[in-house]
Amino acid sequence: MTEYGPRPVDRRLPTEEARDLLTLVRELAEREIRPTAAEEEDAGHFPRATFTLLSEAGLLSLPYDEEFGGGGQPYEVYLQVLEELAAARLTVGLGVSVHTLACHALAGYGSKEQRAEHLPDMLGGGLLGAYCLSEPSSGSDAASLTTRATREGDVWTLEGTKAWTTHGGVADFYTVLARTGGSGAHGITSFLVPGDAEGLSAAVPERKMGMKGSPTAQLHFDAVRIPDSRRIGEEGQGFAIALSALDSGRLGIAACAIGVAQAALDEALAYTAERQQFGRPIADFQGLRFMLADMATQIEAGRALYLTAARLRDAGLPFSKEAAMAKLFCTDTAMRVTTDAVQLLGGYGYTLDFPAERFMREAKVLQIVEGTNQIQRMVIARHLAGPEKR
Fold this sequence. Notes:
The chain is an alpha+beta fold. It has helices at residues 16-43, 48-56, 75-88, 90-109, 112-124, 238-274, 286-314, 320-344, 356-366, 373-385, and strands at residues 129-132, 148-152, 155-166, 173-179, 188-194, 200-202, 216-227, 231-232, 276-277, 280-281. Helix 1 (16-43) runs parallel beside helix 3. It is globular. The termini are far apart.
């Protein structure tokens, strides 16, 4: 009888240091994250201790400059770390991606003094970040946000509500986009708001079909006062900062999606190798073998697509179209692969005793966050055919 089952991902990494890093991440994930993932997700437990451990291990700072405590790793490497973490538990992988997104504005657009003051703690000091762009009435149309920041002297006062905030209520700092000028994209400014700011409160977390261990909540800003020294970039530059962050964030979601898909494939391979019907493993039946082959092919294609976009970013080349393509393809792949994994496990795939059903529930949200996949198609089409005629 042929031996079947999961095999380690064959990764093309640029340096020996990167190979050692991925080995470290896999070992940490197997030891500290995967064993309790199902139980903690079912209980809705937020793994704050895990994020503290990741911070201590330097895994919350990977794509940022070493000057301010970053890991100095290219996105090509960072994204593969995300994939490994998401394969162990999406709450952790996506959480690292969100934290990286929350650090982007300050790292890329903050003054040298701001970066020196805040970045070391944000990147390696045990802090956890969140990103506040969406609002109850502005999701895909983010430029219509209404949370307002009003300036008096050197102090800004923030009023409004943010929605769908990952780590809402548990984060130590928030990158917040607020309106400081007129309507539209040019009237938005970025701020760094501490999690314990007076007047800042979080609603009860949303009740979700998946990722129950990751709190997603509305944030209310009730006369939250922030010194001008916490304004990031120029007044009115916030939306451009947000768009640059989202291009990178979409790559993070793509990598997380491939991680979930890989975990689902590994589960399906292990199950079909062990499950016997008609006197042999069901992995011997051609119909199921073809399903496994399609799943593996889609995963490899998605991985290649997000790595291509990452290498463009690392080279300083435009990558917005490729990031949208990667987010679109990888998250659709995760949905297909996890659905097929449930099918391959049969009745067991529909039970809580196996992780396939959790992977399927988690995959769905990846088609929505960081811009829905319908928005990704709009972004790609604009690159191909130009802006829509209005």
